[in-house]
Amino acid sequence: MNTSSLLKNGIVYITAKRYEFIHAAQAKKSLRLIEQTKGRTDPKLFKMCRDYSIDVFGNSKYAPWLKVYTAFNRNFKEGWIPDNYYRTIVIPKIQGDFGKISNLKFFTNTFFNTQNFPDLVYHINGKWLTVEGEILPIEKVARYLFNSNTKVLFKQDNSMQGLGIQVFEKETINLSTLMGLGNGVFQYFIEQHPFFSEYVEDSVATLRITTTVNSLGKPKVNDAYLRFGMKGESFVAAGSQLKVSVNSIGELSDLGYLNGWQAVKEHPNSKLGFGGKTVPTFNKATDLCMQLHQSYPQIDCIGWDVAIDKNNEVKILEWNGYHNDIKFSEATNGPCFIEQGWEKLWKA
Fold this sequence. Notes:
Helix content: 25-40%
Radius of gyration: 21 Å
InterPro entries: RimK-rel_E_lig_ATP-grasp (IPR039523)
Protein name: Sugar-transfer associated ATP-grasp
Number of domains: 3
Order of helices and strands: HHHHHHEEEHEEHEHEEEEEHEEH
Organism: Maribacter orientalis
Strand order of the largest sheet: 11-10-9-8-7-12-13
Structural class: alpha+beta
Pfam families: ATPgrasp_ST (PF14397)
């Protein structure tokens, strides 16, 4: 083996070990936070996690996330997918390069050909293109954006968890601002359904719907949960969001969870509870996500960020075909992917 190959293999090994260390630390922190409120977990359950990790996934390094799920539920369930196993083993095999396309906003309408995305203008390597493909001179971009909108959002390519998002009003955007933006998309601001504004009106609540397709391309909804922002924030940010599980008919769970897995019965700002509430037009949203996924079955699992507007219309804010998160779904409603056979992928 030559020096170049040795160096390449060394980099791969170090990167994998670093990723393993980061995930173990994240799982350890989550476990500590959960046990602060729920109490210590039975050691026998943790032994089951380790044994299951070795027997089913081939390595004990996947046990930490199984321990998180177990501590959260006070019970062990077969069929759970550890978050680090999903990211390192599952994603490359079921999403791969096709899934990475979701990081490039321009391709959204190319693939799905739908009016349900609120996209207005794409910025690609210095060129500004409308959804219809017309190239705009930079001097006309602001006029085009605010022709019928008072507020727009810019989402940068390869952005995740609310990072890379900027909100603009007509008076806050100029040529200098536009020239400083990277590749991405401008979207019009959604006027959300009053149901969500009752909780917090400053930001648009998003419904995360996770879908999968089977070997024949037939889609199904595996899980859904709501993400609320906080007062004074213009969009839902990963660092402060509140998540509430949603069942198969759109009913909210009695409890929501802040960062740190802290359970709450109501939104901290509005003091409005979650139990007994149902997401408006939930079935319409899930049906659309399944329809769109069926049109692009090359990716086995997609996370859709959905908003419901004031007219009960479903808007897809973005789709995540690569590195969509599953740990909250697995902890609260899992196992969610028991029919996918993902536990066998490490052997392939």
